[in-house]
Amino acid sequence: MSTLPLPLRATPLSLNRPLQHRDVLGVCQRLLVSWLMLRTAAWTLVAWTQPNPPLDVVEWLAWGRELQLGYHKHPPLAAWIAEGLFRLTPGSFVGIYFVGYASIGLALWCVWNLARQLVPPRSALAATLCLDGLIYLGAAVAEFNNQVLLVAFWTIAIERFHAAVLQDRWRDWILTGLALGLALLCKYSALLLIVPLLAWWLLVGARNGSGKRRWTRPALVASVALIVFLPHLVWLIQHDFPTLHYAAQRTQSDRDALDPRLAGLVFLGSQAVRLLPVVLILWPILRWTRRQLDETASLSRSLLTAAVLGPVALHLALSLIGLRLRDIWGMSLWTFAGLLLVCWVKTEAGGRSWSRLRLLWGLVFFVSLGITLLGNVYGSAVRARPMRVHCPGQLLAEEITSRYRQRFGVAPAIIAGDWWLAGNVACHASPRPMVYASREPAYVGLDLSRDRGDPRRFLSPDPAASPWTNDADFRQRGGVLLWDATTYGEDLPPWLADRFPEAQNQKALAPRYLGGSSARLRVGWALLPPAR
Q1: Residue 472 burial by CB count (10 A; 0-12/13-18/19+): exposed, middle or buried?
Q2: Radius of gyration for the chain, computed over Cα atoms and rounded to the nearest angstrom
Q3: Disulfide-capable partner of 183 in 30, 125, 153, 360 (CB 3.0 to 4.6 Å)?
Q4: What is the pTM of this model?
Q5: What torsion do the CA atoms of 188, 190, 192, 198 make, to the nearest 10 degrees?
């Protein structure tokens, strides 16, 4: 593959094209900016119609309240951001929903910023708008988590790396390292992007460079990323790498799982299904002949191919060595999928083709928005098991904190037990208590006769999951123990009664689920009086 002579400097295409091109580019850019603001607001408002925050939001708030350099499952960045936004909007989760969709808006802007340099303006706009068909970037973002943030920093890293290769400016190399370091603070799977980018640079990007240039650029990127990641790395060493132990447990294949080769194909199939709406939106403008690009754009296309397909190939390689792939891991892989397609295939983004694309795009977007809204409001009415976003968390928190105050004259300092129940009470209560969580949350309709794990993991407070407190602190400060009464019964389970003999068992609470469900959430609970 041919490469550019050094330095790899390229003037933005919009400055090299005729005035008509720049006018179309300006119109497309203004339309996109307006759309990103409208999109962020619309999805934020729809997410706000959830009566209760999703599973991951509850967990991030339980962790973020303690402001640690790491947590037993994941790096800390998502928890810090969730906690910061929750404090800025006291008693409301709208700030968390907003930052999730704003980060996706930033990712889409990065896609556009790269696309406009490679393909005509309307094709670049289409390569950005088609991502509204990717469900990962729509309804799933309401469950703000490390995957959502990873999408943003993953996309920024690719876009800045592209700028660094073409312009060879130190600031772009530094920003690439910063984005990759923050991506690692979201999730360690950012390594699956770092490896293809480094390989592309060594094999293609620096082919015409001196040996010094070949290594100084990646060394600078790695140094900046390491500086950003270093505090968490120190925490990992001090705490015996709990996140890696958790990751190993999550990715270990079940005994009765599919053959690894088939598991990889299943992962690819699930990702293909998610990409279908993206291709559907682009379909009217695709002409299915190879696009011819100049030397600079060809170099960019090869980089983009490595950045998109390289991490996918690494995921499949991991499945071959026995790691269990999860569909959600595809969330960060496809932000440049539409652009990669229009970089390889000619497009005709005008006339009737452009009108059809806009129609399909609007149909896909507004249907997905409407279905999500209906699900948030009435989703549990048509399900055998209620959705977690319809958990009566606010009612549960008010009832428990009110009764504890009546009994002891103070608010409970610690909420312990099933982390889903404890986290719900903690994020809805005022003042917010500390969470002393179990290793896992009990899911709706849990059947212990079929569950092959330790039944205590769903409700026993675990110091490893909540290192900021322990049994002695719980007894000293007092609080509440919570468990799923449908699964474990109304009485305090014997192993918890032995562990906390001062606990005072209460009659189970049974608030009704929201979202049109007729089911009730049966919660067993016990009070621990404060020592003073």
Answers
A1: exposed
A2: 25
A3: 153
A4: 0.92
A5: -130
